[in-house]
């Protein structure tokens, strides 16, 4: 506590010193002269900053004292325990959506144009001509956002309504997750599928005083974590006694670090007071799952103060690449529009109020920029060049299967496991025949006198290997609870009745590898049936129980890459030291052999995880000597870890090599072809995971993220600038190799050599970042966005991936057994990893190409009518008079051409199967040929040509019937647009044909019933269309001639281009 208080005081003093010079400067500057010379701006800015700070300031996170079961004693108000993935609330929805829309140049431009129509001198047409499309666009956008918000609200409500059992003085009650408060006592059982991201507690009472939890949703690590209950509360006779004691927890302030915790537990009603320190082993963070048993905990953090939420970034509004490209083209169109208006005014001679006429021309040519462009392309679209896959769960089931046992001279695979089983059964059967109940007698000794020498050797080696695998681990068997006659749940006590039922037994461990090994020993006859902190029991094929005392355990660490255990067999008193680990760590520990390195390489090439198993027999004197030295080392104050490691290493000498095991991590369906598909599509893949380095590397190899003939550079741990510089230089000399780096080393490199590291890493074919925190994942995404021009796509399936998904240009969430947090926060949600291939290669590619074609066609539709308006104004002495009345303009952009234009979203150049077979088609999108300034200029030339032909043709051919120029030109315009849609389509769909004929029918009907709109308006002084005129033969053939001249050259050019320079997809489709 004093250190915590000192740190807070030091931080406050430092902040005070930083503000002192600024205060003195402000006092010196104050005065009338200072105020008149610009001081008022400073004051206004200070007032705005102050108001902003008051309105938006974040609550300071502080340490807290939490009384058990007494939420009302909390000194401060804590946030509500609720999940919220919504972008807006009831008050911010409308202004928030409007801001996101009008911050783009396109919508802001049309807002200004629409507002200008309220000025009489600038009014061109009816108000609905400009306000109706704008209101339609905003309505469609708000409806789309509202639907998304409602969906998020319903999902959040579903999560916040999950029921939990709360322990009170009157018993258990059911409460919603959103109603849980700091200080509540919550009962969590294995049946609870998921602990919400708004809840954290400390283990207080667990029947075996320890439990395993899954943290894959928090930190990405797939192994289970062992959590220990508070000793003081664990000794209470009954659960209800938690309310009879006076105790509290002092917890540190909420922070980002998910791997550490500091706190104290104090019981005041005992004499003397009981104080117990709390660490990460006593905590169950949010977004974790209790793997077995029942936990009673006190809530410490809720809502926004939980680790998982603190490591989650706020949702942002993402802008696609297509939107940015179209926004740039829109600005180019606006520049062309202004230039055209200036040219018209210049040709007019700048006569009269030319500023007003200039603005009127800008409004007249406003159709160059189509307001419905953003609605037309408001479909799913994304183009990615760099993909970040989070956690190994996405590609691996995390289900291990034992595949290989190698004894040096003989190897056993999945098809010969029955031989091992027969050896085990025979060994323990001989023991039962010769010694009866002498369960402790080693079967090997019994078989040495009654079997041939070769058979003895193989049988004894198999027996010792299986026995070592069954003993050297950290696995705990758990017997599932079941309902008794009264409907209450009870736990089957293995210790009470020694009835070990195989059907009810499951295994808990901190690594799935160990579970696979123990399950394999059970399949061959030697079963782990019971384990606690001091003892371990095995059951033989004949039902005999072998008991062992656990003397010492040396857990696995990333540094040592091995684990060990010392056990004493109770029946014989033999003490044995067993050890297993990676081949690189065990090669120098075991006795000399000539097969270990070669066989490890063979198994690695098969994609198996290898473990070397060895043993060493100890006498009683040897063990006592070791125990004394080990105890003294653990009591050392200085260099404790080094002294402990030195004592353990003295034991790790000349171990007898027993066997080599191979375990396969089963991948999800079609993971390898999916990753290969993405690589062939030009997408670089980075894997960001919280798993250990060895696990991440093995998954990268087995999934073929790193090809077998590709080198892997493991970035050594660095802690300072010098080490980072040396390691980066060593990495720079490597060529075409995958990079594997830990989160700690990555942080050091980014601190000193950010640009250099990103440049080198982007040259790698694959990058694996292990031991990454959720915040680091988001930082890597942001880093790639800042230092490269590539678009990023983040894929995750857990709560620890939410920050990364929200930071990427496109977030994909996989909804599965790990929960819905990633899918709730993502832009796209899928159920399996293999669906990513179709999502990108088929839907993503089609979406981009269709949206690009649709966007450019909508621009063409606006530019062609603006060209006709320019020709019309130039002929009539550059008058700023509209060619078509408001209703015709609205009809042109909607019912006359909307359906055929929108039918372009059904177009496709190749079939989905072909797009999946040739991912190089997706790679072509990165060249930007579908939407670029080159294609944009082509469409501009087409629009100018067709607009000029339509307008000049109407004026030339119908000079004697000049009053019908509107009907003539508009009819040719509609036919040209329908033919251009047909020219753009590559694969016809029946809905496209329906849309074409429906639009043509609507236009013909409007000619008959809305003929008053087809006059020349103000120029013709109310002239109307003569129905008998449009049915004459001259009208029909002259309109057909104008349409043919505007479209036929384009059809000829398209035919010649496809014949002499066909696109890549046409070769495949043919």
TrEMBL record:
<feature type="binding site">
    <location>
        <position position="690"/>
    </location>
    <ligand>
        <name>ATP</name>
    </ligand>
</feature>
<feature type="transmembrane region" description="Helical">
    <location>
        <begin position="990"/>
        <end position="1010"/>
    </location>
</feature>
<keyword id="KW-0813">Transport</keyword>
<keyword id="KW-0472">Membrane</keyword>
<keyword id="KW-0067">ATP-binding</keyword>
<keyword id="KW-0812">Transmembrane</keyword>
<dbReference type="InterPro" id="IPR032630">
    <property type="entry name" value="P_typ_ATPase_c"/>
</dbReference>
<dbReference type="InterPro" id="IPR008250">
    <property type="entry name" value="ATPase_P-typ_transduc_dom_A_sf"/>
</dbReference>
<keyword id="KW-0479">Metal-binding</keyword>
<feature type="binding site">
    <location>
        <position position="797"/>
    </location>
    <ligand>
        <name>Mg(2+)</name>
    </ligand>
</feature>
<feature type="transmembrane region" description="Helical">
    <location>
        <begin position="858"/>
        <end position="878"/>
    </location>
</feature>
<feature type="binding site">
    <location>
        <position position="800"/>
    </location>
    <ligand>
        <name>ATP</name>
    </ligand>
</feature>
<feature type="binding site">
    <location>
        <position position="609"/>
    </location>
    <ligand>
        <name>ATP</name>
    </ligand>
</feature>
<feature type="binding site">
    <location>
        <position position="689"/>
    </location>
    <ligand>
        <name>ATP</name>
    </ligand>
</feature>
<feature type="binding site">
    <location>
        <position position="801"/>
    </location>
    <ligand>
        <name>Mg(2+)</name>
    </ligand>
</feature>
<feature type="binding site">
    <location>
        <position position="556"/>
    </location>
    <ligand>
        <name>ATP</name>
    </ligand>
</feature>
<feature type="binding site">
    <location>
        <position position="691"/>
    </location>
    <ligand>
        <name>ATP</name>
    </ligand>
</feature>
<dbReference type="GO" id="GO:0045332">
    <property type="term" value="P:phospholipid translocation"/>
</dbReference>
<dbReference type="GO" id="GO:0005768">
    <property type="term" value="C:endosome"/>
</dbReference>
<comment type="similarity">
    <text>Belongs to the cation transport ATPase (P-type) (TC 3.A.3) family. Type IV subfamily.</text>
</comment>
<feature type="region of interest" description="Disordered">
    <location>
        <begin position="435"/>
        <end position="456"/>
    </location>
</feature>
<feature type="compositionally biased region" description="Polar residues">
    <location>
        <begin position="435"/>
        <end position="451"/>
    </location>
</feature>
<keyword id="KW-1278">Translocase</keyword>
<protein>
    <recommendedName>
        <fullName>Phospholipid-transporting ATPase</fullName>
        <ecNumber>7.6.2.1</ecNumber>
    </recommendedName>
</protein>
<dbReference type="InterPro" id="IPR023214">
    <property type="entry name" value="HAD_sf"/>
</dbReference>
<feature type="domain" description="P-type ATPase C-terminal">
    <location>
        <begin position="824"/>
        <end position="1062"/>
    </location>
</feature>
<keyword id="KW-0547">Nucleotide-binding</keyword>
<dbReference type="InterPro" id="IPR032631">
    <property type="entry name" value="P-type_ATPase_N"/>
</dbReference>
<feature type="transmembrane region" description="Helical">
    <location>
        <begin position="936"/>
        <end position="956"/>
    </location>
</feature>
<feature type="binding site">
    <location>
        <position position="514"/>
    </location>
    <ligand>
        <name>ATP</name>
    </ligand>
</feature>
<dbReference type="GO" id="GO:0005802">
    <property type="term" value="C:trans-Golgi network"/>
</dbReference>
<dbReference type="GO" id="GO:0005524">
    <property type="term" value="F:ATP binding"/>
</dbReference>
<dbReference type="GO" id="GO:0006890">
    <property type="term" value="P:retrograde vesicle-mediated transport, Golgi to endoplasmic reticulum"/>
</dbReference>
<dbReference type="Pfam" id="PF00702">
    <property type="entry name" value="Hydrolase"/>
</dbReference>
<keyword id="KW-0333">Golgi apparatus</keyword>
<feature type="transmembrane region" description="Helical">
    <location>
        <begin position="128"/>
        <end position="147"/>
    </location>
</feature>
<dbReference type="GO" id="GO:0006897">
    <property type="term" value="P:endocytosis"/>
</dbReference>
<feature type="transmembrane region" description="Helical">
    <location>
        <begin position="1030"/>
        <end position="1053"/>
    </location>
</feature>
<feature type="domain" description="P-type ATPase N-terminal">
    <location>
        <begin position="75"/>
        <end position="131"/>
    </location>
</feature>
<keyword id="KW-1133">Transmembrane helix</keyword>
<dbReference type="GO" id="GO:0016887">
    <property type="term" value="F:ATP hydrolysis activity"/>
</dbReference>
<keyword id="KW-0445">Lipid transport</keyword>
């Amino acid at each position: 506590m004093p250190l915590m208080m000192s740190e807070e005081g030091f931080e406050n003093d430092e902040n005070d010193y930083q503000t002192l010079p600024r205060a003195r400067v402000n006092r010196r500057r104050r005065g009338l002269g200072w105020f008149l010379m610009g001081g008022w701006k400073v004051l206004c800015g200070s007032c705005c900053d102050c108001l902003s700070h008051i309105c938006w300031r974040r609550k300071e996170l502080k340490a807290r004292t939490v009384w058990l079961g007494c939420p009302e004693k909390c000194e401060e108000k804590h946030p509500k325990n609720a999940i919220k993935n919504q972008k807006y609330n009831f008050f911010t929805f409308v202004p928030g959506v409007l801001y996101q829309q009008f911050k783009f140049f396109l919508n802001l431009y049309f807002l200004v144009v629409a507002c200008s129509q309220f000025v009489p001198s600038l009014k061109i047409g009816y108000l609905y001509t400009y306000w109706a499309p704008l209101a339609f666009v905003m309505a469609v956008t708000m409806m789309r956002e509202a639907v998304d918000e409602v969906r998020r609200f319903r999902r959040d409500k579903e999560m916040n309504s999950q029921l939990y059992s709360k322990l009170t003085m009157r018993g258990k009650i059911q409460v919603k997750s959103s109603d849980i408060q700091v200080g509540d006592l919550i009962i969590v059982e294995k049946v609870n599928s998921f602990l919400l991201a708004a809840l954290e507690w400390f283990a207080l009472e667990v029947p075996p005083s320890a439990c395993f939890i899954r943290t894959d949703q928090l930190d990405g690590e797939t192994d289970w974590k062992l959590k220990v209950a508070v000793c003081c509360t664990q000794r209470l006779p009954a659960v209800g006694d938690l309310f009879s004691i006076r105790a509290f927890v002092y917890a540190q302030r909420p922070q980002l670090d998910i791997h550490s915790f500091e706190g104290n537990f104090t019981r005041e009603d005992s004499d003397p007071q009981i104080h117990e320190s709390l660490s990460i082993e006593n905590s169950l963070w949010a977004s974790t799952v209790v793997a077995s048993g029942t936990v009673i905990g006190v809530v410490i953090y809720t809502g926004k103060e939980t680790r998982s939420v603190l490591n989650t970034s706020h949702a942002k509004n993402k802008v696609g690449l297509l939107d940015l490209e179209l926004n740039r083209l829109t600005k180019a169109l606006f520049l062309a529009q202004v230039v055209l208006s200036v040219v018209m005014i210049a040709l007019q001679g700048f006569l009269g109020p030319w500023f007003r006429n200039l603005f009127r021309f800008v409004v007249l040519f406003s159709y160059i920029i189509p307001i419905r462009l953003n609605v037309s392309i408001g479909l799913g679209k994304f183009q990615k060049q760099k993909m970040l896959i989070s956690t190994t769960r996405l590609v691996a089931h995390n289900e291990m299967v034992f595949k290989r046992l190698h004894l040096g001279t003989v190897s056993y695979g999945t098809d010969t496991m029955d031989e091992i089983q027969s050896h085990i059964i025979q060994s323990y059967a001989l023991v039962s025949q010769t010694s009866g109940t002498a369960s402790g007698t080693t079967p090997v000794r019994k078989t040495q006198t009654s079997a041939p020498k070769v058979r003895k050797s193989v049988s004894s080696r198999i027996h010792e290997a299986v026995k070592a695998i069954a003993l050297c681990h950290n696995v705990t068997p758990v017997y599932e609870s079941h309902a008794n006659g009264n409907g209450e749940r009870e736990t089957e006590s293995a210790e009470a009745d020694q009835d070990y039922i195989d059907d009810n037994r499951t295994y808990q461990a901190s690594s799935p590898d160990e579970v696979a090994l123990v399950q394999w020993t059970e399949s061959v006859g030697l079963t782990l049936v019971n384990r606690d902190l001091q003892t371990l029991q095995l059951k033989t094929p004949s039902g005999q129980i072998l008991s062992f005392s656990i003397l010492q355990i040396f857990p696995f660490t990333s540094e040592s890459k091995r684990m060990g255990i010392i056990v004493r067999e109770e029946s014989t008193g033999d003490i044995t030291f067993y050890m297993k680990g990676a081949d690189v760590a065990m090669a120098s520990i075991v006795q000399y052999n000539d097969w270990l390195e070669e066989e490890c390489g063979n198994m690695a090439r098969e994609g198996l995880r290898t473990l070397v198993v060895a043993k060493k027999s100890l006498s009683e004197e040897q063990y006592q000597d070791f125990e004394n030295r080990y105890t003294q080392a653990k009591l050392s104050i200085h260099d404790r870890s080094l002294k402990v490691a030195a004592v353990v290493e003295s034991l790790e000498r000349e171990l007898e090599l027993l066997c080599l095991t191979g375990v396969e991590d089963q991948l999800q369906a079609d993971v390898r072809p999916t990753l290969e598909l993405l690589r062939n599509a030009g997408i670089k893949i980075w894997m960001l995971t919280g798993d250990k380095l060895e696990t991440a590397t093995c998954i990268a190899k087995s999934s073929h993220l790193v090809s077998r003939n590709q080198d892997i550079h493991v970035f050594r741990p660095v802690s300072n600038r010098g080490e980072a510089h040396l390691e980066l230089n060593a990495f720079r000399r490597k060529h075409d190799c995958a990079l594997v780096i830990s989160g700690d080393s990555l942080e050091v490199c980014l601190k000193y050599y950010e640009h250099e590291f990103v440049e080198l890493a982007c040259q790698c074919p694959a990058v694996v970042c292990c031991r990454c925190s959720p915040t680091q994942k988001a930082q890597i995404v942001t880093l790639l966005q800042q230092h490269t021009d590539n678009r990023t796509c983040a894929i995750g399936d857990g709560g620890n991936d939410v920050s990364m998904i929200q930071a990427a240009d496109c977030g994909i969430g996989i909804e599965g057994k790990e929960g819905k947090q990633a899918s709730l926060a993502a832009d796209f949600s899928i159920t399996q990893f293999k669906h990513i291939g179709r999502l990108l290669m088929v839907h993503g590619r089609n979406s981009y190409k269709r949206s690009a074609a649709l966007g450019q066609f909508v621009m063409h539709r606006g530019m062609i009518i603006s060209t006709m308006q320019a020709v019309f104004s130039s002929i009539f002495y550059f008058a700023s008079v509209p060619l078509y009345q408001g209703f015709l303009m609205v009809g042109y952009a909607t019912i006359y051409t909307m359906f055929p234009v929108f039918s372009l979203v059904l177009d496709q150049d190749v079939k989905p199967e072909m797009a999946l077979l040739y991912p190089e088609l997706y790679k072509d999108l990165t060249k930007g040929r579908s939407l670029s300034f080159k294609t944009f200029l082509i469409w501009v030339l087409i629009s100018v040509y067709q607009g000029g032909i339509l307008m000049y043709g109407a004026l030339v051919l119908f000079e004697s019937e000049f009053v019908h120029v509107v009907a003539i030109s508009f009819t040719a315009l509609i036919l040209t647009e329908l033919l251009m849609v047909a020219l753009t389509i590559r694969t016809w769909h029946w809905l496209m044909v329906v849309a074409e004929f429906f639009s043509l029918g609507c236009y013909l009907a409007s000619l008959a019933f809305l003929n008053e709109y087809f006059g020349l308006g103000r120029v013709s002084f109310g002239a109307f269309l003569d129905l008998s005129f449009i049915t004459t033969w001259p009208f029909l053939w002259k309109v057909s001639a104008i349409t043919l001249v505007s479209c036929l050259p384009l059809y000829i050019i398209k035919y010649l281009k496809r014949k002499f320079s066909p696109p890549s997809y046409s070769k495949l489709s043919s």
